[in-house]
Specification:
three-stranded antiparallel β-sheet, alpha/beta, 9 strands, 20 helices
Length: about 550
């Protein structure tokens, strides 16, 4: 099953039914056998009541045992056969959403905070599982129960059909009232995503001193959104709370109505026992009509939120189409010619292939944004690239799994990774190769320093074997000696042979190791560019920019 843009919930459920038809067929058959067996219970109870009234000292228990065994077998089977496809659906939808997030441009989903994306992938897919696993099961349960039990009541006494009408009416009213709360359920889910995002941001913010200074106002903001969530949750639950007593009220009225019919016809107490048994059998499916309504309302809201994300991920943004046209590969075989937006003007940039190209400029000039646009341009033109931002993410896993990200690896791959770990000065974290590769770095790399985490991400980038590497200020956290050592060894390594590097930096030591320099200025765009060897004279803008560092 694939989540296509604007895929309706009805078609989604129909495709789920077709995909797992043998399971659902077996589940429906199990439900039929379950209710057929259960429909004998009132007659067994009536028979037992008559025996007791006649003073019988013993009765046959075998059929009660077989009835109980059949109920256990077919009830369990029906649920397993419904729940398994629902679990598979939940897993597949989650994997597909993650694949879409992984393979599409961040431009398509940048309006969704992390908490909202988490809610859609985890909570909303779980709600869809409840719809497919629980609600569909109970719909089948209701339909089959009615188709089996109504003929049985007619066979017993056709007049008693009228007695179950109060139960049906009360369940219908409950479902109707609950269905009107859909907008509140969706609002609750949206606000849960916002609250989730506040929690994530608050937790991440603990690593900065600024958060300690502004914590009070941040918590006030969190409380405000939490209150909104609780108010909408309350509104969504009011209808349920007020109308839920309708269900037991309907059952009580049906029992009273049935008892009056039995009394009018002069039937004995055993008939009332039998009707009570039928009422009990009707109670479960009719009560579940109410909960089916609740699940459907919440699931419709969840599916709408999932498809909102899917539609964004499947539809290209205008910027992506723009980026696709901003790379000229025809002018020269030895360079990439980019066009990027730079402070409301178009900037023409070139980067030489198989060289180290570096962007420099004052803090805030926009180097990171330029690198991001260059990455988007390359991606849209199907050029294999690897980008490492200023704060790349480290998973709560081992160093090996962070480098290879779940790919199958050979011993040569592990040796290559270990050589890079030594090259980037990370081999001192453990006493042996195996210990180092299996070292758990903790959530977001909390067990290692920020600089070590950044270098680990650079290694992950190099292992990807891309054609172009875009690194944002990659060596800002390493000392000058290690930086020089990394550059010298990388440049002679087969790993980066015929590879293009586009990096940014504030350090002259990094720039001196590069081949081509672009000096950016917010007002003028490209202030100066050229080969590194030609920009070291005292007459260059490059020299003026780095004059204090050179001193």
């Amino acid at each position: 099953m694939r989540l296509r843009p604007n895929l309706s919930l009805t078609i989604f459920l129909w495709e789920q039914l077709k995909r797992f038809f043998p399971y659902y067929f077996g589940a429906i058959l199990s439900l039929f056998l379950l209710h057929y067996i259960q429909s004998n219970l009132p007659f067994y109870a009536q028979e037992l009541g008559e025996l007791v009234s006649k003073g019988a000292e013993s009765f046959e228990t075998k059929k009660f045992f077989l009835l109980a065994l059949g109920i256990i077998i077919f009830r369990t089977s029906s649920r397993l056969l419904f729940f398994y496809p629902a679990r598979v659906m939940e897993r597949d939808v989650r994997v597909e959403l993650l694949e879409k997030l992984e393979s599409t441009s961040p431009l398509r989903y940048k309006e969704f905070p992390a908490g909202q994306i988490f809610q859609r992938i985890y909570a909303d897919t779980e709600q869809m599982r409840a719809l497919v696993g629980f609600a569909l099961l109970q719909i089948g349960n209701v339909i089959i129960a009615l188709s089996v039990l109504i003929p049985k009541i007619i066979e017993f006494n056709s007049e008693l059909i009228k007695a179950i009408i109060p139960m049906g009416i009360s369940s219908f009213l409950f479902a109707l009232i609950v269905s009107r709360n859909r907008k509140y359920h969706k609002k609750v889910m949206d606000l849960q995503g916002e609250v989730q995002n506040f929690i994530l941001e608050s937790y991440s913010g603990k690593t900065t001193i600024q958060n300690y200074n502004s914590e009070k106002s941040f918590i006030d903001l969190f409380k405000s959104n939490s209150i909104k969530e609780l108010l909408n949750f309350y509104k969504a639950g009011v209808g349920v709370s007020v109308s839920f007593p309708l269900v037991p009220l309907g059952v009580g009225l049906s029992l009273i109505y049935g008892a009056s019919i039995i009394s009018e016809q002069g039937m004995d107490a055993s008939a009332l026992i039998a009707f009570s048994g039928f009422t009990f059998l009707f109670l479960e499916p009719l009560a579940f009509i109410s909960w089916i309504g609740i699940v459907f309302v919440a699931s419709v809201a969840s599916y709408g939120r999932i498809m909102e994300l899917v539609n964004k991920l499947n539809i290209k943004s205008e910027k992506e189409d723009f980026f696709k046209e901003q790379l000229d590969v025809s002018k020269s075989l030895d360079q990439y010619d980019f066009k990027v937006n730079f402070w409301e003007k178009e900037l023409n940039l070139k980067s030489y292939k198989n060289k180290w190209n570096v962007l420099i400029g004052k803090t805030g000039v926009g180097k990171t944004e330029v690198l991001f646009q260059m990455a988007e341009v390359l991606k849209e033109n199907n050029i294999k690239l690897s980008m490492v931002g200023q704060a790349p993410y480290i998973y709560s896993d081992t160093i090996q799994n962070n480098i290879f990200l779940g790919h199958e690896v050979s011993e040569d791959d592990l040796n290559r990774a270990y050589d890079l770990l030594k090259l980037f000065g990370l081999d001192h974290l453990a006493s042996s190769k195996d210990e180092l590769l299996n070292l758990d770095v903790g959530e977001d790399g909390k067990r290692i320093s920020g600089g070590q985490a950044k270098r680990l991400c650079l290694i992950r980038s190099l292992i990807s074997d891309a054609d172009v590497y875009i690194w944002d200020d990659p060596f800002s956290s390493v000392d000058l000696i290690l930086e020089k050592d990394i550059f010298e060894k990388l440049k002679v390594s087969d790993l980066v042979k015929d590879k293009t590097f586009i990096i940014s930096s504030h350090r002259i030591t990094t720039v001196k190791q590069s081949d081509y320099i672009i000096l950016l200025d917010k007002e003028k765009g490209i202030l100066e560019e050229g080969e590194q060897v030609n920009l070291l004279s005292q007459n260059s803008k490059f020299y003026e920019y780095f004059e204090k560092q050179m001193v």
